[in-house]
Design goal:
By secondary structure, this protein is an all-alpha fold. It is built from ten helices and no strands. The chain has one domain. Mean pLDDT is about 80; it is low at about 100-105 and about 110-120.
Length: about 270
């Protein structure tokens, strides 16, 4: 299965780069905006979750299962799919567990925090460290996400595009999470934006390292296992990050509408490009 042409690889990598660097969109929002559009964020994050949940359960999981059953037989193939699926959840869960809660990029932040009363001088260094630690935490989280985006696009560009968009939407609040404490501690919006942008580079880096390590050994079994793990990673991200974050922005019904809209768009996309 080592038959990917260069254009295909470059497109998959480009989609992963786009998804990763969308943390910079969060930084730009923090740079230019003066208030947080909670309705838009709730709707967008719900939309992203809807895409990822639908495509993971309806398309990616069953593609992996069919691929592994064809290579390993019914029972062994199905069991391997399940192990890889929950293994993907375990990997991203372990990564999340080892990120200290105070620096976790899943914490909700709003632009208004940047206009809060000036903090005491002794707190500024802590805020700068918080922003830097948030950038590192996001980079760690984005590493497997980059591999997930790249793998999906490599398998099917039509599948990779909506997944890249969903991951990109997911990364916007993370960019805000980096930018706010850095600005709050330094007063430098430009530095806050740059650090938020750089934190997303782990996504294409994860794709590149995964490609270099795995592609020389790729076959249908390896690809099937990787694909099932990708489904697990995206389900975990949706349940643990996207939906709780969307609800914490205070627009519960918009989140639900976003989830449904994301599922509808994804199902229509799969139907049109099947």
């Amino acid at each position: 299965m080592n038959d990917f042409d260069l254009n295909h690889i470059l497109i998959a990598f480009g989609l992963t780069l786009f998804a990763g660097l969308s943390t910079g969109i969060g930084g730009a929002i923090a740079y230019f905006a003066r208030s947080t559009n909670t309705r838009f964020l709730s709707l967008s994050l719900g939309f992203s979750a809807g895409i990822m949940i639908y495509v993971s359960f309806v398309e990616i999981f069953f593609t992996s299962k069919d691929m592994l059953i064809a290579e390993m037989g019914n029972q062994a193939g199905y069991l391997t799919t399940l192990v890889a699926f929950f293994g993907g959840m375990l990997i991203i869960g372990i990564i999340d567990k080892f990120v200290p809660e105070v620096e976790n990029p899943h914490e909700v932040h709003k632009i208004e925090e940047m206009d809060a009363e000036m903090v005491a001088e002794q707190k500024k260094d802590r805020l700068i460290r918080l922003g830097k630690y948030s950038a590192i935490a996001i980079a760690i989280h984005n590493f497997p996400e980059g591999l997930a985006t790249f793998t999906s696009a490599l398998a099917d560009i039509n599948l990779g595009i909506p997944i890249a968009i969903a991951i990109a939407i997911h990364n916007i609040p993370e960019g805000i999470a980096v930018a706010i404490p850095v600005f709050y501690g330094t007063g430098d919006r430009g530095k806050a934006f740059r650090l938020s942008l750089y934190s997303g580079l782990a996504e294409p880096l994860g794709a590149m390292i995964g490609f270099l390590i795995l592609m020389p050994f790729i076959n249908h079994i390896v690809f099937g296992v990787l694909f099932a793990a990708v489904a697990g990673i995206m389900i975990f991200i949706s349940i643990d990050n996207l939906l709780p974050t969307a609800r914490e922005y205070g627009e519960h019904h918009l989140t639900v509408y976003g989830v449904i809209a994301g599922m509808v768009v994804m199902s229509v996309s799969l139907l049109l490009f099947a």
